[in-house]
Amino acid sequence: MSRGTGRQENFAKKWVMRQYWRIQQSQAFISVGFWATTLTLLIWPYVRWRPFFSSTESILGLSRTYWGLASIFVSVLLTVLFVGWIYDRVLGLWVEWRSVDTERNPFMTYALSPNWMMATAMQAEILKRVASDDEKIVKDAEWVLEWCATQATEEIFARTVQKWDEFMPTPTPEFWFLPPGAVESARIVEFGDDD
User: What does the alpha-carbon distance between residue 128 and residue 32 come to, in Å, rounded to a whole number?
Assistant: First the structure.
């Protein structure tokens, strides 16, 4: 596979994931609304006291039918909230969910966001200088610096460098722990996904 094809494939995956993320952000509100509406309309025909709401009289200017539908809708919403409370307080499944979510997040396992890369590299360099007489610490610190340097080839680093260049008064420097030209290479990366 040529390098250009890989970039196009990556762009397509990223575009699809961005659209999926946008859908996911509104999913909770929309699904609760759909659940409540659907269940309200499914339950309504089975309500025994429906004739009470079928009368032509209105309450506070609204047909009794609307009051009946609204009471079912609110009941469904309260039931969903109660199930959420049980899920949170009694079952506590969110702890395991967050654990799996963290395991699957590359920035919590093997990748570094640019901010963490900077902080980690600075700490490793300070440790290396402070404990320069301890070979083990120096070796470990150099490994950490090497790990930080590998992250400069990632797209997130290029995006961050370009944003830093936009809002900082001075351009992003070529950091001591990065391979020569890493920051300059990050500056020229084009993304083409600013939709």
Answer: 54
- Listing DSSP states for 14-83 in one string gives HHHHHHHHHHHHHHHHHHHHHHHHHHHHHHGGG-TTHHHHHSS-EETTEEHHHHHHHHHHHHHHHHHHHH
The per-residue pLDDT for 110 is 87
58/64 Cα distance (integer angstroms): 5
Report pLDDT for 29: 77
**CA 35, CA 29: separation in Å to the nearest integer?**
10
Longest dimension (CA), the chain: 91
Give the span between the Cα atoms of 93 and 88, in whole angstroms.
7
* Cα 24 to Cα 42: distance, rounded to the nearest angstrom: 26
Both tokens assigned to 160: 């961050």
**What distances in angstroms separate CA 69 from CA 19, 30, 31, 56, 60, one per listed residue?**
34, 19, 18, 15, 15
Question: How confident is the model at residue 52, as a pLDDT?
Answer: 61
